[in-house]
Amino acid sequence: MSEGNKANTIPTFHDGYLNGIILNDNIVTLHIRRVDGDDYEVRMSEVEHLRLDDFRQGNIILDLKVWSGRQFSQYADITKLYEPYHPSADQKYHDQYTILLNKITVEVERGEKSFVVITPSYGAELYALCKTIEYKRIVVL
After folding, report:
1. H or E segment to which residue 118 belongs
2. Cβ neighbours of residue 120 closer than 8 Å, sequence gap 6 or more
3. Phi and psi for 74 in degrees, rounded to 5?
4. What mean pLDDT comes out for the span 13-42?
5. I need a labelling partner for 15 at 20 to 30 A (CA). Which of 30, 58, 123, 141 fits?
6. In 3-state terms, what secondary structure has residue 98?
7. How far is residue 69's CA from residue 80's CA, in Å, rounded to a whole number?
């Protein structure tokens, strides 16, 4: 009844709709309808951080990208999940922040974690750091 995919074979969700999100402990499930009408569950497991801004009726996806096991592009901005300290904060906090960002970058590049970004045409913008991500086509009878 479903087709599972690993992160390296991402179906295209361009112009699809982010219709829902379910949060269950550290598992996040997104409900997405592609432009061709196919419904998908995108499941992120062992989610460490999640940011979802501007969720509305009719969230249209421009792009869904996953970085894992490869070098970050400039677009993969993990500072959306980990905001920097105020400029007036003591230097030790800025140093700890830099160490944290470098650690996360290494973990993603090694494939130990995945960094997920949904860029919207309209509505919801999502950033997440998780251990795994899977895609499952849902067949509605």
Report:
1. strand 114-122
2. 18, 54, 59, 60, 61, 62
3. -60, -25
4. 96
5. 141
6. helix
7. 20
Do 52 and 124 form a contact (C-beta atoms < 8 A)? yes
Question: Measured in Å, how far apart are the chain's first and last C-alpha atoms?
Answer: 10
Q: Tokens 């009844």 correspond to what residue?
A: 1
**Of all helices (H) and strands (E), which one includes residue 107?**
helix 91-109
Q: In 14-43, which positions are buried (b, 16+ CB within 10 angstroms) versus exposed (e)?
A: eebbbeebeeeeeebbbebbbeeebbbbbb
Q: How many CB atoms lie within 10 A of CB 79?
A: 10
pLDDT digits (tens, 9 = 90+) for 31-74: 999 999 999 999 999 999 999 999 999 999 999 999 898 777 65
- pTM of the complete model: 0.87
Between CA 127 and CA 108 the distance in angstroms is: 14
8 has pLDDT over 60: no
Q: In what order do the strands lie in the sheet with 125-130?
A: 2-5, 132-138, 39-45, 27-33, 17-24, 59-67, 114-122, 125-130, 49-53
- As given in the structure block, the two tokens for residue 73 are 């592009």
